[in-house]
Amino acid sequence: MALDSQPAGDARGDSPLSLEEFSSYVEFGDDDRALLRALWPHVEPRRDAIIADFYDRITRHPSTRAIVSDPASIQRLMRTLRVWLEELLLGPWDEAYVQRRRRIGRVHSQVGVDHAAMFMAMSAVQSRLCEIANASSPEPCATVSAVRKVTNLDLGLMTSSYHTLQQERRVRDVQAILVAHLPAIALLIDATGVVQSATPAADWLCCRPIEPGLHFTQLLDPSLVAAAELEHYVTRALSTRNDVHLPRVDTTQSDEPRTLSLTLVPFDSPAPGVLVYIEDHTHAVNAERRFQQQERLAQVGTMSATIAHELRNPLAGISGALQVIAGGLPEGDRRAPILAKVLDQVRGLNRMVTDLLAYSKPHASRVESGIDLVALVNGVASDVVADYPSVQIEVAGEAVVSVDPHMARQVLHNLVMNAAQAAGDGGHVQVTVGPHSVRVCDSGPGLPDAVRPRVFEPFFTTKIKGTGLGLPISQKIARAMGGDLLIIDGGPLAGACFDFLLGR
Ligand code: HEM
């Protein structure tokens, strides 16, 4: 077993049992030592039997059996136990003895032998030794007492470092977890650029595992090395002995844009080298970008709502006036088709105004229980089929839920209508109703990768006549209901798929 080279317990701040204190406390004196030495000739012939009994107990009990299942370690344990037993009775009980016992304690702590197992095992050894003392010693009482003292001494010494070792192990475990999950990577490289050591790095950052002699340009992703001009800056840090801080390095790894910062800290001891500290700020930068975008959208939203409000009445007036003028034109008038076109455009503007007002309106949900979702979806489906008669809409599943039926209908109408438009003539739409969500999928061409992340962005549209507000409004309503609206990968039909999560 590999033993870590730890200093003795007292050097690490344990409060270990001291030989002097123990000896004075329990009066473990020369008489006891002499009695133990006198007992050894009676114990030695039974040594193998004692050890066999010791091992037998360990293997018979489930709590200890698992720890010594490896045959090689069993052999080592049996051999070392022979020596231990001899030292127990013959001494000398000096500082070297104390250190050997502490070492055994550390081995036990590493292999997972706990206090309870130690007490049980020592108690069994103690009984065997006392039996022999009672049967063979001319002073059985005093010899049994000496056996008790020395076995207790050993127990105290062996278990004294347990607590600190366990704490150290816990700290190491926590450190390992911290290092493994750090959003930063630290590399130590020597003056020739060879990686000496590194914290575990994300796959996107490292091309291969660290091996001796690996240059940092072979370890790190080439696009990062190039984007950060790392070779240049490592040389500079090494030659000037000054820190180099690269606050923002934009790079693309595995097709994903990343924003990193790099800090290079030169060091001299034990040999010249550079610590390269790489932090990944991609999430923070994206979050900041999203936040700014949302801020901008909120401003645009407020402004649009004000404009929409102002436009609504004049638009209604224009549309009414156009209808009156168109109605007054004689049949076959050449101006009629032009007026019809203008009227159509005014209707488009009206639609936009209505959508804008819907998007900026705060949505308060009024939940009703016992809403039959399938009935709601069927109602929506028949409305949509009226506009898209060649699309087949299939509704499956069942659920009676508590929702705001008006809001749920708005979202479903938008989703099913979008799906029907995407499916096109002769296409299919599949709506699957469940107690927590409704999934709407279509047989259309699907959402291109470039479009997917933007479908909930207001005013983003791929349709010629769309306002780009349908899906954002639906998502806003779904969220106001305590649910959400999500794009789903790999639906049952070839096209796009959305999940309307109902929330509370
Ligand atoms: C009176 C109680 C015990 C004594 C005196 C004792 C003694 C020893 C000694 C002398 C060693 C060798 C340490 C070294 O390498 O320096 C050792 C190791 C070990 N002991 Fe114990 N032990 C006791 C209890 C136990 C118990 C109860 C278990 C199992 C539950 C156990 C399992 C082991 C194991 C697995 C090793 C490591 C073996 C290897 O792989 O080298 N010991 N013990």
Overview of the molecule:
The chain has 504 residues and is an alpha+beta fold. It has 4 domains: 9-169, Globins (Globin-like, Orthogonal Bundle); 182-280, Beta-Lactamase, CATH 3.30.450; 292-360; 368-501, Histidine kinase-like ATPase, C-terminal domain (Heat Shock Protein 90, 2-Layer Sandwich). The chain contains 17 helices and 12 strands. The protein has helices at residues 19-25, 30-43, 47-60, 62-65, 71-90, 95-111, 115-136, 140-159, 162-181, 216-219, 222-227, 230-240, 282-328, 336-360, 373-387, 405-423, 470-480; strands at 184-190, 195-198, 244-253, 256-267, 273-280, 368-372, 392-397, 400-403, 428-433, 437-442, 484-487, 497-501. The strands form 3 sheets. It has a 5-stranded antiparallel beta sheet, with helices on both faces. Strands 7-9-10-12-11 form a 5-stranded mixed beta sheet, with helices on one face. Strands 6-8 form a two-stranded antiparallel sheet. Helix 2 (30-43) crosses helix 5, helix 3 (47-60) packs across helix 5 and helix 15 (373-387) crosses helix 16. The two termini are 56 Å apart. Residues 1-14 have low confidence and may be disordered. Bound molecules: protoporphyrin IX containing FE. Residues 1, 58, 64, 67-68, 73, 76-77, 80-81, 84, 103-104, 107-108, 111, 113, 117-118, 121-122, 125 line the site of protoporphyrin IX containing FE. Protoporphyrin IX containing FE is lined by residues 1, 58, 64, 67-68, 73, 76-77, 80-81, 84, 103-104, 107-108, 111, 113, 117-118, 121-122, 125.
